[in-house]
Specification:
Blueprint lengths: L1 H21 L6 E6 L18 H9 L1 E7 L5 H10 L3 H4 L35 H6 L3 E5 L15 E2 L14 E7 L5 H5 L22 H30 L7 E6 L14 H4 E7 L8 E3 L3 E2 L3 H8 L25 E9 L2 E10 L2 E6 L17 H11 L5 H4 L9 E5 L17 H17 L8 H8 L12 E5 L2 E5 L6 E6 L6 E2 L4 E2 L4 E6 L9 E3 L1
Length: about 525
Protein backbone atom coordinates (compact mmCIF):
# COMPACT_ATOMS: atom_id res chain seq x y z
CA UNK A 1 0.00 0.00 0.00
CA UNK A 2 2.87 2.39 0.86
CA UNK A 3 4.47 1.63 -2.51
CA UNK A 4 1.17 2.33 -4.32
CA UNK A 5 0.75 5.62 -2.47
CA UNK A 6 4.34 6.52 -3.30
CA UNK A 7 3.79 5.76 -7.00
CA UNK A 8 0.54 7.72 -7.04
CA UNK A 9 2.32 10.65 -5.40
CA UNK A 10 5.09 10.57 -8.00
CA UNK A 11 2.54 10.45 -10.82
CA UNK A 12 0.63 13.43 -9.33
CA UNK A 13 3.89 15.36 -8.96
CA UNK A 14 4.87 14.57 -12.56
CA UNK A 15 1.47 15.70 -13.86
CA UNK A 16 1.69 18.90 -11.81
CA UNK A 17 5.17 19.65 -13.12
CA UNK A 18 4.09 18.97 -16.71
CA UNK A 19 1.07 21.24 -16.35
CA UNK A 20 3.28 23.96 -14.89
CA UNK A 21 5.67 23.72 -17.86
CA UNK A 22 2.89 23.85 -20.42
CA UNK A 23 0.94 26.58 -18.65
CA UNK A 24 1.00 29.71 -20.82
CA UNK A 25 1.50 32.98 -19.01
CA UNK A 26 -0.51 35.89 -20.45
CA UNK A 27 2.09 38.67 -20.59
CA UNK A 28 1.39 42.35 -20.95
CA UNK A 29 2.42 43.48 -24.44
CA UNK A 30 3.13 47.08 -25.45
CA UNK A 31 3.78 48.51 -28.91
CA UNK A 32 5.70 51.80 -29.17
CA UNK A 33 5.33 52.97 -32.77
CA UNK A 34 7.46 55.71 -34.33
CA UNK A 35 6.20 57.10 -37.59
CA UNK A 36 8.44 57.37 -40.66
CA UNK A 37 11.84 56.22 -39.36
CA UNK A 38 14.66 54.14 -40.78
CA UNK A 39 17.08 52.21 -38.54
CA UNK A 40 20.08 54.09 -39.95
CA UNK A 41 19.15 57.19 -37.91
CA UNK A 42 19.21 55.40 -34.54
CA UNK A 43 22.22 54.79 -32.26
CA UNK A 44 21.57 51.07 -31.73
CA UNK A 45 22.05 50.67 -35.50
CA UNK A 46 25.36 52.53 -35.54
CA UNK A 47 24.47 56.23 -35.87
CA UNK A 48 26.17 58.32 -33.17
CA UNK A 49 24.49 61.64 -34.04
CA UNK A 50 22.10 61.38 -31.08
CA UNK A 51 22.14 59.40 -27.83
CA UNK A 52 18.40 58.67 -27.34
CA UNK A 53 18.82 57.32 -23.78
CA UNK A 54 15.43 55.61 -23.41
CA UNK A 55 15.55 53.78 -26.74
CA UNK A 56 19.18 52.86 -26.15
CA UNK A 57 18.29 51.47 -22.73
CA UNK A 58 15.43 49.50 -24.28
CA UNK A 59 17.88 48.06 -26.81
CA UNK A 60 20.23 47.00 -24.00
CA UNK A 61 17.33 45.28 -22.24
CA UNK A 62 16.02 43.68 -25.43
CA UNK A 63 16.78 42.25 -28.85
CA UNK A 64 17.69 44.47 -31.80
CA UNK A 65 16.40 43.15 -35.12
CA UNK A 66 18.56 44.00 -38.11
CA UNK A 67 16.26 42.73 -40.87
CA UNK A 68 12.77 43.97 -40.02
CA UNK A 69 10.60 45.23 -42.89
CA UNK A 70 7.34 46.91 -43.75
CA UNK A 71 5.55 45.34 -46.76
CA UNK A 72 4.63 48.82 -48.07
CA UNK A 73 6.72 52.00 -47.68
CA UNK A 74 3.84 54.16 -46.44
CA UNK A 75 1.69 54.12 -43.32
CA UNK A 76 -1.95 53.13 -43.99
CA UNK A 77 -1.24 50.01 -46.10
CA UNK A 78 1.55 49.06 -43.67
CA UNK A 79 -0.82 49.35 -40.72
CA UNK A 80 -3.36 47.11 -42.45
CA UNK A 81 -0.65 44.42 -42.47
CA UNK A 82 0.20 44.99 -38.80
CA UNK A 83 -3.40 44.68 -37.63
CA UNK A 84 -4.26 41.63 -39.77
CA UNK A 85 -1.13 39.55 -40.37
CA UNK A 86 -1.80 39.78 -44.12
CA UNK A 87 -0.16 41.36 -47.17
CA UNK A 88 -1.98 44.56 -48.19
CA UNK A 89 -1.87 43.41 -51.81
CA UNK A 90 -3.95 40.37 -50.76
CA UNK A 91 -6.38 42.40 -48.65
CA UNK A 92 -6.97 45.11 -51.25
CA UNK A 93 -5.44 47.73 -48.94
CA UNK A 94 -2.30 48.20 -51.04
CA UNK A 95 -3.17 51.73 -52.20
CA UNK A 96 -2.53 54.83 -50.09
CA UNK A 97 -5.27 55.54 -48.94
CA UNK A 98 -8.34 53.45 -49.56
CA UNK A 99 -10.39 54.28 -46.46
CA UNK A 100 -9.84 57.93 -45.57
CA UNK A 101 -11.19 58.90 -42.17
CA UNK A 102 -9.59 62.35 -42.41
CA UNK A 103 -11.73 63.88 -45.15
CA UNK A 104 -15.06 63.23 -46.86
CA UNK A 105 -13.54 63.05 -50.33
CA UNK A 106 -10.55 60.78 -50.82
CA UNK A 107 -8.86 61.47 -54.18
CA UNK A 108 -11.46 63.28 -56.31
CA UNK A 109 -8.84 64.38 -58.87
CA UNK A 110 -8.52 60.76 -60.03
CA UNK A 111 -12.03 59.61 -59.11
CA UNK A 112 -11.14 57.43 -56.12
CA UNK A 113 -13.67 57.57 -53.24
CA UNK A 114 -13.05 56.58 -49.65
CA UNK A 115 -13.84 52.87 -49.31
CA UNK A 116 -13.18 49.94 -47.03
CA UNK A 117 -12.12 46.84 -49.03
CA UNK A 118 -14.08 43.67 -48.16
CA UNK A 119 -11.24 41.45 -47.02
CA UNK A 120 -11.08 37.65 -47.53
CA UNK A 121 -13.16 35.45 -45.27
CA UNK A 122 -11.51 34.87 -41.91
CA UNK A 123 -9.42 38.04 -41.87
CA UNK A 124 -9.93 39.95 -38.63
CA UNK A 125 -8.19 42.63 -36.62
CA UNK A 126 -6.03 40.52 -34.32
CA UNK A 127 -6.63 42.37 -30.99
CA UNK A 128 -10.13 40.90 -30.97
CA UNK A 129 -8.56 37.48 -30.30
CA UNK A 130 -6.79 39.00 -27.30
CA UNK A 131 -10.02 40.55 -26.01
CA UNK A 132 -11.80 37.23 -26.32
CA UNK A 133 -9.13 35.76 -24.05
CA UNK A 134 -9.58 38.47 -21.45
CA UNK A 135 -6.97 41.02 -22.50
CA UNK A 136 -7.62 44.74 -22.11
CA UNK A 137 -6.75 46.26 -25.50
CA UNK A 138 -6.00 49.93 -26.06
CA UNK A 139 -4.84 52.09 -28.95
CA UNK A 140 -3.44 55.58 -28.40
CA UNK A 141 -4.38 57.00 -30.75
CA UNK A 142 -3.74 56.69 -34.51
CA UNK A 143 -5.64 53.92 -36.29
CA UNK A 144 -5.37 54.41 -40.08
CA UNK A 145 -5.72 50.73 -41.04
CA UNK A 146 -6.78 51.57 -44.63
CA UNK A 147 -10.19 50.12 -43.81
CA UNK A 148 -12.92 51.04 -41.35
CA UNK A 149 -12.30 49.28 -38.05
CA UNK A 150 -14.89 46.89 -36.68
CA UNK A 151 -16.45 47.20 -33.23
CA UNK A 152 -15.18 44.90 -30.52
CA UNK A 153 -11.45 45.23 -31.30
CA UNK A 154 -10.44 47.81 -28.70
CA UNK A 155 -11.55 48.40 -25.16
CA UNK A 156 -10.48 51.95 -25.85
CA UNK A 157 -9.00 53.76 -28.86
CA UNK A 158 -8.43 57.43 -28.11
CA UNK A 159 -5.76 59.88 -26.91
CA UNK A 160 -6.76 58.84 -23.37
CA UNK A 161 -6.46 55.09 -23.93
CA UNK A 162 -4.17 53.54 -21.32
CA UNK A 163 -3.52 50.25 -19.56
CA UNK A 164 -4.31 51.97 -16.24
CA UNK A 165 -8.00 51.95 -17.18
CA UNK A 166 -8.18 48.14 -17.06
CA UNK A 167 -9.44 45.93 -14.26
CA UNK A 168 -6.98 45.00 -11.52
CA UNK A 169 -4.37 42.46 -12.71
CA UNK A 170 -6.04 42.16 -16.13
CA UNK A 171 -3.45 41.44 -18.87
CA UNK A 172 -3.25 44.14 -21.50
CA UNK A 173 -2.14 44.91 -25.04
CA UNK A 174 -1.45 48.62 -25.48
CA UNK A 175 -0.40 50.52 -28.60
CA UNK A 176 1.15 53.98 -28.41
CA UNK A 177 1.72 55.88 -31.65
CA UNK A 178 4.15 58.79 -31.84
CA UNK A 179 3.62 61.32 -34.63
CA UNK A 180 6.54 63.61 -33.78
CA UNK A 181 8.80 61.83 -36.29
CA UNK A 182 6.25 61.86 -39.14
CA UNK A 183 7.19 63.24 -42.55
CA UNK A 184 4.98 66.29 -41.95
CA UNK A 185 7.05 67.20 -38.91
CA UNK A 186 10.06 67.94 -41.12
CA UNK A 187 8.28 71.14 -42.12
CA UNK A 188 6.01 71.23 -39.07
CA UNK A 189 9.01 71.47 -36.70
CA UNK A 190 11.19 73.35 -39.18
CA UNK A 191 10.94 76.65 -37.29
CA UNK A 192 11.57 75.08 -33.88
CA UNK A 193 15.03 75.17 -32.26
CA UNK A 194 17.32 72.47 -33.61
CA UNK A 195 18.60 70.02 -31.00
CA UNK A 196 21.53 68.91 -33.16
CA UNK A 197 24.00 70.93 -35.23
CA UNK A 198 23.28 70.56 -38.98
CA UNK A 199 27.05 70.60 -39.60
CA UNK A 200 27.44 67.33 -37.64
CA UNK A 201 24.74 65.21 -39.29
CA UNK A 202 25.77 62.49 -41.77
CA UNK A 203 24.41 63.06 -45.29
CA UNK A 204 23.30 59.89 -47.10
CA UNK A 205 24.90 59.49 -50.55
CA UNK A 206 21.41 59.86 -52.04
CA UNK A 207 21.40 63.62 -51.43
CA UNK A 208 23.64 66.57 -52.23
CA UNK A 209 25.62 67.81 -49.23
CA UNK A 210 24.07 71.26 -48.87
CA UNK A 211 22.69 73.51 -46.10
CA UNK A 212 19.13 72.82 -47.31
CA UNK A 213 19.54 69.05 -47.01
CA UNK A 214 21.44 69.26 -43.72
CA UNK A 215 18.70 71.42 -42.21
CA UNK A 216 15.96 68.83 -42.86
CA UNK A 217 18.21 66.00 -41.65
CA UNK A 218 18.88 67.97 -38.46
CA UNK A 219 15.13 68.48 -37.95
CA UNK A 220 14.63 64.71 -38.15
CA UNK A 221 17.36 64.03 -35.60
CA UNK A 222 15.82 66.70 -33.35
CA UNK A 223 12.44 64.99 -33.69
CA UNK A 224 14.05 61.70 -32.68
CA UNK A 225 15.24 63.35 -29.46
CA UNK A 226 11.69 64.54 -28.87
CA UNK A 227 10.42 61.03 -29.62
CA UNK A 228 12.81 59.51 -27.08
CA UNK A 229 11.46 61.78 -24.35
CA UNK A 230 7.86 60.87 -25.21
CA UNK A 231 8.67 57.15 -25.18
CA UNK A 232 10.50 57.69 -21.90
CA UNK A 233 7.25 58.77 -20.26
CA UNK A 234 5.60 55.47 -21.17
CA UNK A 235 8.58 53.44 -19.99
CA UNK A 236 8.80 55.34 -16.71
CA UNK A 237 5.08 54.79 -16.12
CA UNK A 238 5.53 51.06 -16.70
CA UNK A 239 8.31 51.04 -14.12
CA UNK A 240 6.30 53.11 -11.64
CA UNK A 241 3.39 50.68 -12.01
CA UNK A 242 5.74 47.73 -11.45
CA UNK A 243 5.07 46.38 -14.96
CA UNK A 244 8.29 46.94 -16.89
CA UNK A 245 10.13 43.76 -15.91
CA UNK A 246 7.38 41.32 -16.83
CA UNK A 247 6.08 43.14 -19.92
CA UNK A 248 7.01 42.52 -23.54
CA UNK A 249 7.73 45.79 -25.34
CA UNK A 250 7.98 46.25 -29.11
CA UNK A 251 9.50 49.44 -30.51
CA UNK A 252 9.36 49.84 -34.28
CA UNK A 253 8.95 52.32 -37.11
CA UNK A 254 5.86 52.03 -39.33
CA UNK A 255 8.04 52.21 -42.51
CA UNK A 256 11.22 53.91 -43.68
CA UNK A 257 12.38 57.45 -43.06
CA UNK A 258 10.51 60.68 -43.88
CA UNK A 259 12.65 61.86 -46.79
CA UNK A 260 12.47 61.59 -50.59
CA UNK A 261 13.60 58.12 -51.78
CA UNK A 262 12.92 56.87 -48.25
CA UNK A 263 9.17 56.99 -47.60
CA UNK A 264 7.19 55.61 -50.60
CA UNK A 265 10.28 53.86 -52.05
CA UNK A 266 10.87 50.11 -52.24
CA UNK A 267 14.56 50.57 -51.56
CA UNK A 268 15.88 49.59 -48.13
CA UNK A 269 15.49 53.22 -47.09
CA UNK A 270 11.72 52.92 -47.55
CA UNK A 271 10.84 49.47 -46.24
CA UNK A 272 13.52 48.55 -43.69
CA UNK A 273 12.49 49.54 -40.17
CA UNK A 274 13.95 49.60 -36.67
CA UNK A 275 12.62 46.89 -34.39
CA UNK A 276 13.50 46.27 -30.74
CA UNK A 277 11.72 43.66 -28.64
CA UNK A 278 12.23 43.64 -24.88
CA UNK A 279 11.03 40.34 -23.51
CA UNK A 280 9.77 39.64 -20.00
CA UNK A 281 12.54 39.69 -17.41
CA UNK A 282 14.93 41.01 -20.10
CA UNK A 283 15.33 37.60 -21.71
CA UNK A 284 17.97 37.67 -24.49
CA UNK A 285 18.96 41.18 -23.40
CA UNK A 286 21.61 42.94 -25.44
CA UNK A 287 21.49 40.56 -28.40
CA UNK A 288 20.85 41.02 -32.11
CA UNK A 289 18.57 38.99 -34.38
CA UNK A 290 19.23 38.76 -38.12
CA UNK A 291 16.05 36.85 -39.12
CA UNK A 292 13.85 38.31 -41.84
CA UNK A 293 10.78 39.74 -40.09
CA UNK A 294 7.85 41.38 -41.86
CA UNK A 295 4.91 43.35 -40.48
CA UNK A 296 2.70 40.41 -41.41
CA UNK A 297 4.56 38.47 -38.67
CA UNK A 298 3.65 40.85 -35.84
CA UNK A 299 0.02 39.77 -35.39
CA UNK A 300 0.70 36.00 -35.22
CA UNK A 301 3.70 36.65 -32.97
CA UNK A 302 1.68 38.66 -30.44
CA UNK A 303 -1.05 36.02 -30.43
CA UNK A 304 1.54 33.29 -29.91
CA UNK A 305 3.16 35.20 -27.04
CA UNK A 306 -0.31 35.42 -25.46
CA UNK A 307 -0.80 31.66 -25.85
CA UNK A 308 -3.28 31.97 -28.72
CA UNK A 309 -2.84 29.86 -31.83
CA UNK A 310 -2.73 32.20 -34.86
CA UNK A 311 -5.56 31.58 -37.35
CA UNK A 312 -4.37 29.69 -40.45
CA UNK A 313 -5.41 32.47 -42.83
CA UNK A 314 -2.67 34.74 -41.52
CA UNK A 315 0.19 34.93 -44.01
CA UNK A 316 2.69 35.93 -41.34
CA UNK A 317 4.67 33.61 -39.08
CA UNK A 318 4.85 33.61 -35.28
CA UNK A 319 8.45 34.46 -34.41
CA UNK A 320 8.21 33.66 -30.69
CA UNK A 321 5.95 32.00 -28.14
CA UNK A 322 4.37 28.53 -28.02
CA UNK A 323 3.41 28.70 -31.71
CA UNK A 324 6.76 29.91 -33.01
CA UNK A 325 7.45 28.52 -36.48
CA UNK A 326 10.41 26.21 -36.95
CA UNK A 327 11.43 27.63 -40.31
CA UNK A 328 11.89 31.38 -40.58
CA UNK A 329 11.31 33.33 -43.78
CA UNK A 330 13.79 33.19 -46.65
CA UNK A 331 12.27 36.16 -48.42
CA UNK A 332 10.86 39.61 -47.76
CA UNK A 333 8.24 40.87 -50.22
CA UNK A 334 7.03 44.45 -50.60
CA UNK A 335 4.66 46.35 -52.84
CA UNK A 336 4.07 49.89 -54.08
CA UNK A 337 0.96 51.11 -55.92
CA UNK A 338 -0.96 54.38 -55.51
CA UNK A 339 0.32 57.17 -53.27
CA UNK A 340 -2.43 59.74 -52.83
CA UNK A 341 -3.12 61.09 -56.32
CA UNK A 342 -0.14 59.41 -58.06
CA UNK A 343 -0.28 55.84 -59.39
CA UNK A 344 2.52 53.42 -60.20
CA UNK A 345 3.12 49.71 -59.55
CA UNK A 346 6.34 48.16 -58.28
CA UNK A 347 7.17 44.95 -56.44
CA UNK A 348 10.31 44.10 -54.45
CA UNK A 349 11.96 40.98 -53.06
CA UNK A 350 14.79 40.60 -50.56
CA UNK A 351 16.72 37.31 -50.51
CA UNK A 352 20.04 36.88 -48.73
CA UNK A 353 22.24 39.79 -49.72
CA UNK A 354 20.22 40.57 -52.85
CA UNK A 355 17.32 42.94 -53.54
CA UNK A 356 15.17 42.54 -56.66
CA UNK A 357 12.74 45.26 -57.82
CA UNK A 358 10.27 45.00 -60.69
CA UNK A 359 8.96 48.20 -62.28
CA UNK A 360 5.67 47.66 -64.13
CA UNK A 361 5.61 51.23 -65.50
CA UNK A 362 9.15 52.23 -66.52
CA UNK A 363 8.01 55.55 -67.99
CA UNK A 364 6.83 56.84 -64.59
CA UNK A 365 9.52 58.54 -62.52
CA UNK A 366 10.16 57.35 -58.98
CA UNK A 367 10.10 61.02 -57.99
CA UNK A 368 6.35 61.30 -58.57
CA UNK A 369 4.93 64.71 -57.70
CA UNK A 370 3.00 63.61 -54.61
CA UNK A 371 1.53 66.90 -53.41
CA UNK A 372 1.92 65.97 -49.73
CA UNK A 373 5.66 65.38 -50.13
CA UNK A 374 6.08 68.55 -52.18
CA UNK A 375 5.66 70.54 -48.95
CA UNK A 376 9.07 69.38 -47.69
CA UNK A 377 11.89 71.92 -48.14
CA UNK A 378 14.32 69.17 -49.16
CA UNK A 379 11.92 67.95 -51.86
CA UNK A 380 11.49 71.46 -53.19
CA UNK A 381 15.27 71.90 -53.26
CA UNK A 382 15.81 68.62 -55.13
CA UNK A 383 13.14 69.58 -57.66
CA UNK A 384 14.90 72.87 -58.31
CA UNK A 385 18.26 71.16 -58.88
CA UNK A 386 16.66 68.54 -61.16
CA UNK A 387 14.95 71.17 -63.28
CA UNK A 388 18.24 73.08 -63.54
CA UNK A 389 20.06 69.83 -64.45
CA UNK A 390 22.39 70.34 -61.48
CA UNK A 391 21.64 67.20 -59.47
CA UNK A 392 24.50 64.84 -58.69
CA UNK A 393 24.25 61.40 -60.38
CA UNK A 394 23.19 59.49 -57.24
CA UNK A 395 20.33 61.88 -56.54
CA UNK A 396 19.41 62.32 -60.21
CA UNK A 397 18.92 58.56 -60.74
CA UNK A 398 15.74 58.67 -58.64
CA UNK A 399 14.20 61.25 -61.00
CA UNK A 400 15.18 59.71 -64.34
CA UNK A 401 12.96 57.93 -66.82
CA UNK A 402 12.68 55.41 -68.16
CA UNK A 403 13.24 53.32 -65.08
CA UNK A 404 14.78 49.90 -65.67
CA UNK A 405 12.17 47.12 -65.86
CA UNK A 406 14.18 45.17 -63.30
CA UNK A 407 16.67 46.17 -60.65
CA UNK A 408 19.11 43.94 -58.78
CA UNK A 409 21.36 45.04 -55.95
CA UNK A 410 24.01 43.47 -53.75
CA UNK A 411 23.14 45.04 -50.40
CA UNK A 412 26.39 44.03 -48.75
CA UNK A 413 28.38 46.01 -51.28
CA UNK A 414 25.74 48.63 -52.12
CA UNK A 415 23.45 49.33 -49.12
CA UNK A 416 21.84 52.39 -50.75
CA UNK A 417 21.05 50.48 -53.97
CA UNK A 418 22.83 52.78 -56.40
CA UNK A 419 24.43 50.21 -58.74
CA UNK A 420 21.88 48.15 -60.68
CA UNK A 421 23.35 44.70 -61.43
CA UNK A 422 20.44 43.35 -63.48
CA UNK A 423 22.53 43.26 -66.65
CA UNK A 424 25.57 41.58 -65.07
CA UNK A 425 26.34 38.38 -66.96
CA UNK A 426 27.49 36.54 -63.83
CA UNK A 427 24.22 37.24 -61.99
CA UNK A 428 21.67 36.08 -64.58
CA UNK A 429 20.96 32.86 -62.67
CA UNK A 430 20.29 34.92 -59.54
CA UNK A 431 18.06 37.29 -61.49
CA UNK A 432 16.09 34.40 -62.99
CA UNK A 433 15.64 32.80 -59.57
CA UNK A 434 14.37 36.01 -57.98
CA UNK A 435 12.13 36.75 -60.94
CA UNK A 436 10.56 33.30 -60.55
CA UNK A 437 10.09 33.76 -56.81
CA UNK A 438 8.37 37.07 -57.43
CA UNK A 439 5.99 35.50 -59.96
CA UNK A 440 5.25 32.73 -57.49
CA UNK A 441 4.49 35.18 -54.67
CA UNK A 442 2.21 37.30 -56.88
CA UNK A 443 0.24 34.19 -57.83
CA UNK A 444 0.10 32.49 -54.41
CA UNK A 445 -0.88 35.61 -52.49
CA UNK A 446 -3.41 36.66 -55.15
CA UNK A 447 -1.77 40.05 -55.56
CA UNK A 448 -4.54 42.49 -56.53
CA UNK A 449 -2.13 45.06 -57.93
CA UNK A 450 -2.63 43.81 -61.48
CA UNK A 451 -6.18 45.20 -61.42
CA UNK A 452 -6.95 48.90 -61.62
CA UNK A 453 -8.36 50.35 -58.43
CA UNK A 454 -11.60 51.37 -60.13
CA UNK A 455 -12.05 47.80 -61.40
CA UNK A 456 -11.73 46.49 -57.84
CA UNK A 457 -14.13 49.10 -56.48
CA UNK A 458 -16.77 48.22 -59.10
CA UNK A 459 -16.35 44.52 -58.32
CA UNK A 460 -16.59 44.95 -54.56
CA UNK A 461 -19.39 47.51 -54.50
CA UNK A 462 -22.02 46.88 -57.19
CA UNK A 463 -24.03 50.06 -57.67
CA UNK A 464 -21.61 51.76 -55.29
CA UNK A 465 -23.02 50.13 -52.14
CA UNK A 466 -21.42 47.97 -49.50
CA UNK A 467 -23.00 44.63 -48.69
CA UNK A 468 -24.94 44.66 -45.40
CA UNK A 469 -24.73 41.70 -43.04
CA UNK A 470 -27.97 39.98 -42.04
CA UNK A 471 -29.01 40.14 -38.36
CA UNK A 472 -27.68 37.80 -35.68
CA UNK A 473 -29.97 34.90 -34.78
CA UNK A 474 -30.56 33.86 -31.18
CA UNK A 475 -31.75 30.80 -29.32
CA UNK A 476 -31.96 29.66 -25.71
CA UNK A 477 -29.95 26.60 -24.82
CA UNK A 478 -29.46 25.33 -21.26
CA UNK A 479 -30.75 28.67 -19.95
CA UNK A 480 -28.09 30.54 -21.94
CA UNK A 481 -28.36 32.85 -24.97
CA UNK A 482 -26.63 31.38 -28.01
CA UNK A 483 -25.81 33.81 -30.84
CA UNK A 484 -25.24 32.66 -34.43
CA UNK A 485 -24.57 34.18 -37.84
CA UNK A 486 -24.50 32.50 -41.28
CA UNK A 487 -21.48 34.50 -42.55
CA UNK A 488 -18.38 32.58 -41.44
CA UNK A 489 -16.27 35.68 -42.04
CA UNK A 490 -18.31 37.80 -39.64
CA UNK A 491 -17.69 38.41 -35.95
CA UNK A 492 -20.56 38.62 -33.46
CA UNK A 493 -20.26 41.40 -30.90
CA UNK A 494 -22.51 42.19 -27.96
CA UNK A 495 -22.95 44.64 -25.12
CA UNK A 496 -25.33 45.48 -22.32
CA UNK A 497 -27.89 48.09 -23.31
CA UNK A 498 -26.27 50.77 -21.19
CA UNK A 499 -22.66 50.05 -22.29
CA UNK A 500 -20.71 51.86 -25.01
CA UNK A 501 -18.01 49.23 -25.67
CA UNK A 502 -18.82 46.07 -27.63
CA UNK A 503 -17.46 42.70 -26.51
CA UNK A 504 -16.48 39.74 -28.67
CA UNK A 505 -18.99 36.89 -28.46
CA UNK A 506 -17.13 33.69 -27.57
CA UNK A 507 -19.54 31.69 -25.39
CA UNK A 508 -23.27 31.59 -24.50
CA UNK A 509 -24.51 34.54 -22.45
CA UNK A 510 -26.67 34.74 -19.33
CA UNK A 511 -30.37 35.17 -20.06
CA UNK A 512 -30.78 37.54 -17.13
CA UNK A 513 -29.04 40.36 -19.00
CA UNK A 514 -30.63 42.91 -21.35
CA UNK A 515 -28.30 42.75 -24.33
CA UNK A 516 -27.68 44.04 -27.83
CA UNK A 517 -25.88 42.02 -30.49
CA UNK A 518 -24.80 42.50 -34.10
CA UNK A 519 -22.48 41.04 -36.73
CA UNK A 520 -19.45 42.91 -38.06
CA UNK A 521 -16.96 42.23 -40.85
CA UNK A 522 -14.24 44.35 -42.44
CA UNK A 523 -15.56 46.00 -45.60
CA UNK A 524 -19.23 45.24 -44.86
CA UNK A 525 -21.98 47.28 -43.26
CA UNK A 526 -22.80 46.03 -39.76
CA UNK A 527 -25.97 44.04 -39.36
CA UNK A 528 -28.90 45.71 -37.67
CA UNK A 529 -28.78 45.46 -33.88
CA UNK A 530 -30.71 42.64 -32.24
CA UNK A 531 -32.05 43.50 -28.78
CA UNK A 532 -32.23 40.59 -26.34
CA UNK A 533 -34.26 40.84 -23.14
Amino acid sequence: MKIIKLLLGCIFLLISCTEEKTKVVTPNIIWLVAEDQSPEFLPMYGDSTTELPYLSSLAKDGVVFTNAYSPVPVCAPARSALISGMYPSTLGTHNMRTYNAYKKENEPSIGIPSYSPPVPEGVKMFPQYLRAKGYYTTNNAKEDYNFKKTDGVWDESSPRAHWQNRNTNQPFFAVFNFGITHESQIWGQGDQPLLVDPKTVPVPPLFPDSPEVRKDLAVNYSNLIRLDKQIGKVIEQLKTDGLYEKSIIFFYGDHGGPFPRYKRALYETGIKVPLIVKFANQEKAGTANTDFVSFIDYAPTVLSLAGIKPPPIMQGKAQFGPYEVKEKSEFIFASSDRFDEQVDRLRALRFGKFKYIRNFNPDISNAMAVSYREQMPMMQYLNQLWEAQELEPNAAAWFKTPKPKEELYNLEQDPYELNNLASEVGLQDTLTFLRTQMDKWIFETQDLGEFSEKTLINKWFPEGKRQKLVPVTTKIQADKIVLEHPDKGATIVWKKNQDTVWSIYSKPLDTSKSLQAKAVRIGYDDSSISTLN
